[in-house]
């Protein structure tokens, strides 16, 4: 069976999901939405960095693309600074009867226990009204901290704690808005950026620990957040911007799921703008990795290293995009509603072996 797909945005993740859609034999690209006139009218292949034209031209006309009634929209538009608008976009697709796989807003990966019912119910209602499904995922939050740790726990006799970590050098991450406005790199240490405002970490990544707890039948008492920032010790240049000594250049945050006064699940990020920063913090395998640790009997540690053209940051974008696109057939076939990772069957890179 062939599934008709519209790609929604062609930014950092979208250009890679566009390539992935074009590569998949079971998917037919029928439309591409772009946010501005600079990309409108361009062939999807050009936007994806491919040589062979597809005949599908990008458009800023959202309603015309919805009117195509595709089986699925691959939604990768950035939502960090427009959360409510992004949720309204998703509801619009669902009401139109179109299934959606999306990289954001990330709290919809597993919103239960993180969002109030009045925030979740309208999304579910829109999905049920349109007979469509929504699945939000990626690599983090995503398969690096849902399927990977859950697979490891299946080999456990006893589980004491599960910790999922991202340990990355972000010096090659080409997203100035995220780096400087949202994460606060290059700012004074006493200036809290959006990411570190009270409750934001538990909103964005609380879904990770709550989903692990639900999948392993654990009732949490609370979800907490903590962070630490360290300054640059010498001038740095990242994403075209100079990072002055004394300003934020390394960030470590942790979101913890607590039961009976003890941390049972944790999501941790350790982000540096230079590998020499914060030498006492945990170090990645290679230039960057996703690490899963299961403490119990036995103890497991899995380090997932990733590279694309030698760049681990780009590999994370490719991995996010491909994960969404791989799930399109399963999401189209799934029950209407808001799906989580544990609702889907195993999805693979079927048809991609060269």
UniProtKB/TrEMBL annotation:
Name of the protein described by the UniProt record = Diacylglycerol kinase
The molecular function terms in GO held by this entry are: kinase activity
Transmembrane ranges? none
Gene3D superfamilies, A to Z: NAD(P)-binding Rossmann-like Domain
Sorted UniProt keywords: Kinase, Transferase
Which residue range or ranges hold the 2,4-diaminopentanoate dehydrogenase C-terminal domain?
146-348
Q: Which Pfam families has this protein been placed in? A: DAP_DH_C (PF19328)
**Database matches in InterPro entries:** DAP_DH_C, NAD(P)-bd_dom_sf
Q: Which domain of life is it from?
A: Bacteria
